[in-house]
């Protein structure tokens, strides 16, 4: 039932500091997002967004983050994301920004979007190659982009009414 009223917000963590990658973890991202919501929308906005808000997926290697929130309040969440200024982990603060890539009704639509997005990024890299070795590495990466069919083990993918 929870999946029927949710939106998934796919973001990428953008930072000049390569050390920022080490603190891209569920807890740090969740705290940074909640802090931004509180600063932008106050206690009311924070309370609204906190209902079923969760960090569903984090990939520190690619800087990809998937957030889930109530469908009724995803606009509040999205409007606060540009105000995330840093991630904090183990008393270290790293300046960063969250770039919203896609808003979807299911995890699967976000996965599909991410595959296409990564393909486009790799194609741009391919066009900027300076030698054959770089070109072959990127071509190999492009060929490895696929989405395998898997049975959903949770109810997170029931609501597929698209994006708004």
From TrEMBL:
GO terms for cellular component: multimeric ribonuclease P complex; nucleolus. One of its GO terms (molecular function) is ribonuclease P RNA binding. The keyword Protease does not apply. Keywords: Nucleus, rRNA processing, tRNA processing. Pfam families: RNase_P_Rpp14. One of its GO terms (biological process) is rRNA processing. Gene3D superfamilies: Ribonuclease P, Pop5 subunit. The keyword Cell division does not apply. InterPro entries: Pop5/Rpp14/Rnp2-like, RNase_P/MRP_POP5, Rnp2-like_sf. It is found in: Nucleus, Nucleolus. Belongs to the eukaryotic/archaeal RNase P protein component 2 family. Component of nuclear RNase P and RNase MRP ribonucleoproteins. RNase P consists of a catalytic RNA moiety and 10 different protein chains; POP1, POP4, POP5, POP7, RPP14, RPP21, RPP25, RPP30, RPP38 and RPP40. Within the RNase P complex, POP1, POP7 and RPP25 form the 'finger' subcomplex, POP5, RPP14, RPP40 and homodimeric RPP30 form the 'palm' subcomplex, and RPP21, POP4 and RPP38 form the 'wrist' subcomplex. All subunits of the RNase P complex interact with the catalytic RNA. Several subunits of RNase P are also part of the RNase MRP complex. Component of ribonuclease P, a protein complex that generates mature tRNA molecules by cleaving their 5'-ends. Also a component of the MRP ribonuclease complex, which cleaves pre-rRNA sequences. This is Ribonuclease P/MRP protein subunit POP5.
């Amino acid at each position: 039932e929870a999946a029927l009223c949710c939106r998934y917000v796919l973001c990428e963590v953008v930072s000049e500091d390569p050390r920022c990658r080490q603190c891209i973890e569920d807890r740090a991202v969740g705290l940074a997002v909640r802090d931004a919501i509180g600063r932008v929308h106050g206690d009311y906005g924070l309370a609204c967004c906190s209902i079923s808000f969760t960090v569903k997926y984090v990939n520190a290697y690619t800087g990809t983050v998937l957030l889930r929130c109530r469908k009724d309040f995803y606009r509040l969440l999205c409007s606060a994301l540009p105000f995330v200024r840093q991630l904090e982990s183990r008393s270290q603060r790293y300046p960063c920004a969250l770039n919203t890539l896609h808003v979807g009704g299911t995890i699967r639509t976000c996965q599909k979007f991410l595959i296409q997005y990564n393909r486009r990024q790799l194609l741009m890299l391919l066009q900027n190659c300076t030698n054959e070795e770089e070109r072959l590495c990127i071509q190999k990466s492009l060929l490895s982009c696929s989405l395998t069919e898997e049975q959903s083990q949770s109810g997170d993918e029931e609501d597929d009414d698209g994006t708004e």
